[in-house]
TrEMBL record:
It comes from the Eukaryota. One of its GO terms (cellular component) is nucleus. Residues 1-23 form the signal peptide. Residues 298-792 form the Glycosyl hydrolase family domain. Keywords: Hydrolase, Signal. It holds the Pfam family Glyco_hydro_92. GO terms for biological process: carbohydrate metabolic process; glycoprotein catabolic process. The keyword Signal applies. The lineage of its organism: Eukaryota, Fungi, Dikarya, Basidiomycota, Agaricomycotina. InterPro entries: 6-hairpin_glycosidase_sf, GH-type_carb-bd, GH92_N, Glyco_hydro_92, PNGase. This is Glycoside hydrolase family 92 protein. GO terms for molecular function: carbohydrate binding; peptide-N4-(N-acetyl-beta-glucosaminyl)asparagine amidase activity. PANTHER family: FAMILY PROTEIN, PUTATIVE (AFU_ORTHOLOGUE AFUA_1G10790)-RELATED, PEPTIDE N-GLYCANASE PNGASE -RELATED.
Length: 820
């Protein structure tokens, strides 16, 4: 453990901050509705989840709307809602109907049977009829709490723990019979294929159902358990009379006997509508739920453990909510700023982003249905392709304990399946997008925390073997895990039109994108090899392989007068031409740019213009290939001015700061101001694309702090922060590192800073010592405790001449960087 730096000025600062943080409730600064606009009709749908959840929660409780797209269940518009359900994802793409959304509750005022016991046709528990409009402006969300009110006056509120929660229904008419539907069959994707429900006369409900995962070929089985705090008049089941008539129901209620339904597995999705119905005459009903991936009995014990019945015989709503809020306060307070002093828009963006970046991955420890293990199990690693660039590097700064558990889950995936997980979603492997991008995550853990691995409980020999196996072996089908290493090792690139003689299959598209990502993956093995004292032979082998991205480089392709672009390549060595603007936002021709047999561009959710900038471990190679500093800078400028920058997708993330590698951090500073104020805002449409498991949130956090991580390394590019000062806490090292911007100028907090605005980094000192670089800072300094002073000025000409300073450019393998 490193001691907190003891300089008197720093102690003073710390005092100020602790006063500020006592006075300010950081959770109150989080806007959970950022990124909840509808993505319909070309809208900027962030698919952010605004419901109740603790950090890294499994239970993510929230309302679900009737119209798609609705990946996270919720949309902040006037659409009707079909229920409140227990599990959700954060900001994903994939199935536009959404993922999870299991076992929703839905409240009714009215009667399902008339006084002769005959079914009332107005009571239709099925999804088609069951939709309620929200009263305008009644959606309320804060960390650990969500509430909405129907036009009919029924209010729904929720709060939660890791695997359990409470949902409170307040009905407007106290003397009415009120019903709750407990839906068995409708997840967001309407993908039910089998399940059971049992319900007791007291309203104890246990459910289990099998559903399709939202981004992958498999299915999963989830379980839930419900109890209610109010006297039950009657309880029972409903089901559609047959599968071809899902809106005509058999309802059977009883006040004396248990009832159950069972639907055996059908290979196609079942349209059956079925579940439980419970009648109450209380004006307020609280439901307690537990969720599990193991059994309904475990769902019940999760509920009992996490939300015990107090000695007064109640569930303590206020305590659960306060606990959730405190957990969030703990996470958010690892990045402290003076919230009164800084720009309030920036403050809201920062804390809202930090919030979302700790919603995922989801802690499913104890809920692994596939193997027994003493190691943690996480879900919503969805996909590593999205999150390796920013989410994991952010966790590395301020959440080392959480991060080490997640890293252990990656390693345990390898331990039990032979490969590290790439896109685990709904507990099971989803589709591989490009490389096996857990590799840079594990490599980065090795370079940052190898010395602390024992304390953190991460077996590093296993981590290294996981990397090597994923770098060497090819699974029988690399659709959902692993890489096409047969091709990579045979050709030193990913050929088009090659049938693997080993018989291994996968989706043989996206060749150029995969080669770039495989290269970074191999660099991650090299880095881990150095950190873990592995053999020189291994280190050299993976260093060499990490440079193979150059083999996808066709020097003869030109676009806008710039020469040399990444391209597809046949096994005979000839390149296959793709216009470099294909799949950019201004591509004039409709192309499939995603996964799928019909993607024939060689690139994945990106263009050659963009992917040609992707070699974080050796950008110097790209600068050379592109013709040197001046042409490189022109080319980056052209990429932005011609509209090739895809702000809403991850392959673009490294480009705004890539000017650093041509010695022009001044241009990065201006570009990042522009990106932040053009593409992000505090509005519901304030994320330029899907939040992508908070990849966007973590990116924005880095931009605001004036940092950008070089993946699988200890380097961070340093930039021009959007606040005058901030303090990062690292709970493992027990350090506080205060970054102060000397000369901070808030007139630069705009898309185009005014001439003379002090936005250019002039010097950086760490604990009083000039680092000699205005381009790069090491992880050890970012989390080492003490004071980092970033001096800024507004002299653009001087900044352009300054370059990176005497310590030189950020590292590249090409120029001898990342030394052993
Ligand atoms: C902090 O703010 C949240 C709303 O975000 C509120 O629920 C909570 O009670 C507040 N806590 C304190 C201690 O004021
Ligand atoms: C919902 O909002 C849309 C778009 O603002 C509007 O066209 C529509 O009429 C609204 N519907 C209702 C039921 O208010
Ligand atoms: C109950 O509903 C049935 C069918 O609609 C109807 O025939 C019967 O009269 C109703 N009984 C009462 C008491 O309303
Ligand atoms: C509720 O009670 C009021 C007053 O006794 C009565 O007028 C009304 O019909 C009742 N409503 C229901 C739904 O039973
Ligand atoms: C879904 O799960 C069942 C067992 O519950 C299994 O038999 C079936 O093959 C699975 N289907 C898919 C598409 O994975
Ligand atoms: C399903 O139920 C509906 C409504 O009762 C009925 O009209 C229809 O014939 C039934 N279909 C089958 C296949 O049983
Ligand atoms: C800059 O600070 C001044 C003085 O506190 C304030 O009035 C102004 O609104 C701030 N501008 C921005 C863009 O934050
Ligand atoms: C995950 O859950 C386990 C079991 O409750 C707990 O020990 C661990 O601290 C949790 N980790 C995170 C990051 O939530
Ligand atoms: C580029 O073009 C030149 C001249 O036509 C040709 O000789 C060379 O082989 C080409 N290079 C590649 C990699 O196709
Ligand atoms: C290489 O293979 C491609 C695809 O089969 C073919 O079009 C091209 O002519 C070949 N080039 C050479 C030099 O044989
Ligand atoms: C590019 O600029 C950097 C930083 O100013 C400098 O170190 C490097 O030598 C330049 N490269 C070339 C090829 O001029
Ligand atoms: C904060 O900065 C934004 C963006 O420049 C500006 O619109 C806003 O007015 C500033 N807020 C304050 C309080 O100055």
């Amino acid at each position: 453990m490193k001691p907190i730096h003891q300089r008197p000025t720093f102690l003073l600062l710390l005092l100020t901050f602790s006063n500020a943080s006592k006075a300010t409730n950081l959770t109150s600064l989080v806007n959970l509705f950022i990124g909840t606009a509808s993505g319909a009709n070309g809208g900027s749908g962030g698919n952010a989840f605004p419901g109740a959840a603790v950090p890294h929660a499994m239970a993510k409780v929230g309302i679900d709307v009737s119209t798609a797209p609705r990946q996270a269940g919720y949309i902040h518009d006037n659409s009707s809602i079909t229920g409140i359900s227990l599990l959700h994802d954060e900001g994903t793409g994939g199935n536009t109907d959404g993922g999870y959304g299991n076992f929703p509750l839905f409240p009714f005022i009215g009667s399902c049977t008339n006084s002769s016991g005959v079914n009332n046709p107005e009571c239709e528990p099925g999804i088609a009829a069951r939709a309620a409009l929200r009263a305008a402006g009644t959606d309320i969300a804060s960390p650990g709490y969500f509430s909405t009110t129907f036009v009919s006056g029924i209010q729904i509120e929720t709060t939660s723990t890791r695997r359990a929660g409470l949902i409170r229904f307040t009905f407007p008419v106290s003397n009415a019979t009120n019903y709750l539907v407990v839906d068995l069959t409708n997840d967001l994707g309407r993908s039910f294929s089998s399940g059971t429900i049992s319900i007791s006369p007291l309203g104890h409900v246990e459910l289990g159902g099998t559903f399709l995962q939202s981004y992958g070929p498999s299915n999963y089985t989830a379980y839930a358990c419900y109890d209610f705090d109010s006297p039950v008049l009657q309880a029972g089941t409903y089901q559609s009379v047959n599968t071809s008539s899902p809106t005509v129901f058999d309802i059977s209620l009883s006040s004396t006997s248990n009832m159950s339904l069972e639907f055996p597995f059908t290979s196609s999705v079942s349209p059956i509508q079925a579940g439980g119905l419970i009648a109450f005459n209380s004006s307020q009903v609280v439901a307690r739920f537990g969720v599990s991936m193991i059994s309904s009995a475990q769902a019940c014990s999760n509920a009992e453990d996490e939300i015990p019945t107090t000695s007064d015989g109640v569930w303590d709503w206020d305590a659960i909510m306060a606990n959730s809020n405190n957990e969030w306060e703990g996470v958010l307070s690892r990045v402290l700023i003076n919230v009164e002093k800084e720009n309030s828009t920036v403050v809201e963006l920062l804390y809202s982003s930090l919030y979302r970046a700790s919603l995922i991955p989801a802690n499913f420890t104890g809920e692994n249905p596939y193997w027994d293990s003493p190691f943690p199990f996480f879900d919503a690693m969805f996909c590593s392709w999205d999150v390796f660039r920013t989410v994991h590097p952010l966790l590395s700064l301020t959440s080392p304990q959480e991060w080490s558990q997640i890293v252990n889950a990656y390693v345990d995936g390898w331990r039990n399946t032979g490969y590290i997980p790439e896109c685990r979603a709904n507990t099971t492997p989803g589709y591989v997008q490009g490389g096996s991008d857990g590799m840079p995550i594990l490599g980065e853990f090795a370079v940052k925390y190898a010395a602390n691995a024992e304390e953190l409980g991460v077996p590093m020999d296993d981590l290294y073997q996981a990397l090597v196996d994923t770098a060497e072996n090819t699974p029988p089908n690399w659709l959902t895990v692993g890489r096409q290493n047969t091709a990579w090792k045979t050709f030193d690139y990913i050929p088009t039109d090659w049938v693997d003689p080993s018989g291994s299959v996968g989706l043989p598209t996206r060749e150029a994108s995969r080669a770039y990502e495989y290269s970074l993956g191999d660099f991650a093995v090299r880095q881990a090899g150095i950190a873990l004292n592995k053999s020189q032979a291994d280190i050299e082998k993976y260093a060499n392989r990490s440079m193979n991205f150059v083999n996808m480089w066709d020097p003869n392709v030109t676009s806008d007068g710039f020469s040399g672009f990444a391209q597809r390549r046949y096994q005979n060595g000839t390149f296959a031409f793709t216009d470099p603007i294909t799949c950019s936002p201004v591509d004039p021709i409709a192309h499939s740019c995603a996964r799928g047999d019909d993607n024939d561009s060689g690139f994945y959710e990106s263009s050659s213009w963009e992917m040609s900038f992707f070699a974080p471990h050796s950008v110097a190679t790209l600068v050379q290939l592109m013709g040197g500093n001046t042409t490189f800078v022109d080319r980056v400028n052209n990429y932005f001015s011609k509209g090739y920058f895809t702000a809403g997708n991850e392959p673009s993330f490294n480009v705004p700061s890539i000017y650093h590698y041509a010695g022009r951090p001044d241009l990065s500073a201006l570009r990042i101001r522009n990106v932040v104020f053009t593409d992000f805002s505090t509005q519901i449409g304030g994320i330029p694309g899907n939040d992508d498991s908070a990849a966007m949130a973590a990116l924005l956090t880095f931009h605001l702090l004036g940092l950008y991580p070089v993946q699988a390394s200890t380097q961070l590019l340093i930039g021009s922060p959007f606040v005058s000062s901030y303090t990062l806490m690292n709970p493992l090292f027990n350090t506080s590192t205060t970054f102060t911007v000397s000369g901070f100028d808030n007139t630069t907090l705009v898309a185009s800073p005014p001439s003379g605005g002090r936005v250019f980094v002039k010097s950086v000192t760490v604990n009083g010592v000039d680092t000699g670089s205005v381009c790069v800072i090491d992880f050890a300094d970012v989390v080492g405790g003490g004071e980092v002073v970033i001096e800024v000025d507004g002299d653009a000409d001087a900044a352009a001449l300054r370059g990176c300073g005497p310590a030189g450019l950020p590292d590249s393998l090409e120029t001898g960087g990342f030394p052993m």
